[in-house]
Amino acid sequence: MAPSTDPSIWNQEIAVPAEVISYVDDAVKAKMPEGTQVLSISPSGSSYWARTAKIATLDSEGNEVFYFIKAHQGETGHSLVLGEYHSMNTLWTVMPELVARPYGYGTYEKMEDVHFFLCSFHELTDDIPDIDDFPALVAKLHKAQISPDGTFGFPYETFGGRLPQLFPVTDSWETTFKSGLERIFDSEENTHGHDEDMAQLRNGIMEKVIPRLIRPLESGPNKIQPRLVHGDLWDGNCSVDVNTGHPVIFDATCLWAHNEYELGPWQPSRHKMSKPYIREYIKHFPISEPAEDFEDRVLLYSMRFNLHASSLYPGNLRFRNIVREDMRKLVEKYPGGYEAWANNEESS
């Protein structure tokens, strides 16, 4: 995850040396189809955390084919490319027309501490996907497949920016989401330090708000099913292919989740894809029951993304303060938690 609201980070040197995209390592070539001839490699795209480049090749029939490589360094770098590959491969298997095709991941032969992810190259516009078709495509992705074993979560650690996130595989969305959120709370506190007000609000979110807003999704007659989501679908992780005019999504941190979790990044007004995209999405995928909780569920999910953003930027308290106010709103609205809701349902 790389919010577009802290431009100062672009002035910092990327931790990965430029040398890693000055040549195409043999390990990278091995992930390309047999008979591929490498022509060149050149820097392409932008990343806060990695070196990225475009690789020009000829396939076995002499056709020009382009690849995109993302290179990281160190032990964390290996985990980064592993998580991204499995996320992108899972998405591509379900809906290949929407996803940059993954070709593989691995470790350089010449530089054993450099790890890479390789996928198809798409020349992208500077625009976000159009509201007239993109929310419908996202809804189509969510409808395309239910978790094969009926569980929520994802078996691989993924990364938002440089920070790990793990949503454990469980039979309950409440359990999976709560566990994932706990880790992000811990990361944010490690970044900015302890704050007693935040700690008390965190407790209210965990003990009252999450059970109140998520448990009814799994206890009513219309129980939610685990749907495949991109996991970080803000406007920096999708664009439009120049040649086809079709939307493309990338930088996935996917998991099997409540489909409305995907709408969290569309809640903040700072993003180009915002609430109008949510309104269009629900025309194609009905709101989960209880429908009256929908706006607060999306606020809870967006809080998770803002909390992660806060954890990425030491010294910048903007996102922490946004999260603080969102938590306060939800904690004050649901002091009785799930029990108050269940008692009201029984008496009505």
Polypeptide structure, described:
This protein has 348 residues and is an alpha+beta fold. The protein folds into 2 domains: 7-120, Phosphorylase Kinase, domain 1 (2-Layer Sandwich); 134-347, Alpha-Beta Complex (Aminoglycoside 3'-phosphotransferase, Chain: A, domain 2). 38% of the residues lie in helices and 16% in strands. It has 9 helices and 11 strands. It has a 5-stranded antiparallel beta sheet. Helix 4 (173-192) runs antiparallel to helix 5 (196-219), helix 4 (173-192) packs parallel to helix 7 and helix 5 (196-219) runs parallel beside helix 9 (337-347). The termini are far apart. The model is unreliable at 1-12 (pLDDT under 50).
Q: Uncertain regions: pLDDT < 50 for 5+ in a row?
A: 1-12
Q: What structural class results from the helix and strand content?
A: alpha+beta
* Helical content class: 25-40%
| CATH fold name of the largest domain | Aminoglycoside 3'-phosphotransferase, Chain: A, domain 2
Q: Gyration radius, to the nearest Å?
A: 21 Å
User: Oligomeric form of this entry?
Assistant: single chain
The biggest beta sheet reads: 5 strands, antiparallel
Order of helices and strands: HEEEHEEHEEHHEEEEHHHH
Mean pLDDT: 94
What CATH architecture of the largest domain do you see?
A: Alpha-Beta Complex
Indicate the CATH class of the largest domain. Answer: Alpha Beta
Through-space gap between termini: 43 Å
CATH superfamily of the largest domain: Aminoglycoside phosphotransferase (APH), C-terminal lobe
Count of all domains: 2
Number of helices: 9
Question: How is this fold's topology laid out?
Answer:
Elements (H helix, E strand, L loop, with lengths): L25 H4 L7 E7 L7 E8 L5 E10 H21 L7 E6 L6 E7 L13 H11 L13 E3 L2 E3 L7 H20 L3 H24 L7 E3 L8 E3 L6 E3 L5 E3 L17 H7 L12 H19 L5 H16 L3 H11 L1
Antiparallel strand pairs: 1-2, 2-3, 3-5, 4-5, 6-7, 8-11, 9-10
